[in-house]
Amino acid sequence: MHSERIIISLFFVGVSRNAGLEVDSGERRVISSVSLEAEDVDTPPNQVFYFINAAPRFGNLQLKTESGWTELSAGRNFTQDDVEMNRLWYKHAADSAAAFKGHDSFRFTLSDLDNESPAQSFFVSVRTVQKGDIVLLSTAVHLREGQRVVLTTDILLASDAAARPEELVFTVTVPPRHGLVHAVRRPGVPLGSFTQLDVAAHRVCYTHDNGHDAESDAFSFVVTNGVSSRSGSLHFTVEHGDRIPPTLRHNAGLRLQDGATETIGGERLQLTDPDTAAANLSYVVTQPPRYGKLLLRGVPLTPPLRFTQTDVDGLNLAYRQDPGSPAEVDGFHFLPSDGHNRGLELCWSRVDLSATCYRTCETSGTLQIQIQRSGRSVDPAYVAIQVEEGSAKPGRDFTHSSAGLIQFDPECEVRQQLVSRRLDSLQETLLHHQPVGGELGERREDLLTDVQQQPDQRSLPEGHDLAVEVRREEAILDRSVRRFERLDVVGRPLAVLLQAAGGAAEPPRWRLRLRAG
């Protein structure tokens, strides 16, 4: 007879460590494997379950999940893996009921879904801290109008025996009238409550509303630690100053007849400033009118060239244009001021042509036009350039430099522009416009005439050339030239420019012009 022995090994799930936890009143602490550990040799930690039979009475069990924190109540569960990964926490409720005796607990049953342990309790010992009375210190703050001040512990400090700043809660009972208490990261949003820890971390501030009436402000609060409370207030002293420059609200200009006088009223010229009276708002004239005069109460404005907004509002300021002036546009430059702040003063350079006439012959090939800058030259300036054709056609009769923009580098005062001529004496206009960092001068236009150097040499005295000098729009030929015929490409006469008697006929010309864009 043959016999066999069968050995069956049984493994049961059980708690190998249940050391409990110690917390202070109101404290939140993790329950790790140092305090609670289950043993099951044939089951991984994430399949060893703690099923809660009774939740804590004076606190909360909290489990961190992928979606956030979850409060565990009776019937819920957590795993040994949650404990080992520090996802299980206990939070004591500081406002515990009168039945609280200094400890708390929760009951659980351990299971691997095949075996189950007897019910056990996990105990939490709570050290009760006597918070005592709150000591409150506040220091008045001195700030400027419109300034923001971050509250610190030097300004506002509440403390008690527990020394837990996160549990000292300030509740604003009367908000400030001339400013706002708000979180540093949420400007403009009133803050109803904050903690002493927020103050210590520089997360709370006060911002003045930039008002000009009140010289002080304050807000009232109640601070509590859950056991005792105390009322207080924080005061602010506001220093008023004029930091806002005046604003030019109206600058409509005038339209008037030649030689007329027109009153400048507030609807045409107006400065505004929230913290300055109209009598203290002044216009400092930096460049007077060129073709007229400013009149103050009927008398020409004399140095110092200044008038006030009250002068304008009272219709005491006028402009009188000089009769017979050739200008169609006039104006004056000014700086607005409130006695403390001035508007922005712009310093420009002046860009114009260096000459109003040129002498040239077409055989010279290239004509070099000089553009100069005067005045402030420490900054760069630009002026656009463009050719306006007359009787000459681009490509056929002349070519223009490919550069469409002339740049003056800092301290550069002279630049050149090239125009290449072809064939014969035709006219062209060169336009400068759209200045940047400068303004156009008076020499905005130059007139150029090219003379074809293929006349009938038999009618010319020896030793004389055919250079043509052009001034403005009048052609003045050398008086020694008695007869000059312009020829086309095959040598046929096209026009008689100067008769033997000395009369002048106007040749076709080029024109260079500076024009503001």
From TrEMBL:
SUPFAM superfamilies: CalX-like (SSF141072). Keywords: Glycoprotein, Repeat, Signal. Signal peptide: none annotated. InterPro entries: CalX-like_sf, CSPG_rpt, FRAS1_ECM. It holds the Pfam family Cadherin_3. Gene3D superfamilies: 2.60.40.2030. CSPG repeats lie at residues 12-111, 132-224, 245-337. This is Uncharacterized protein. It comes from Scophthalmus maximus.
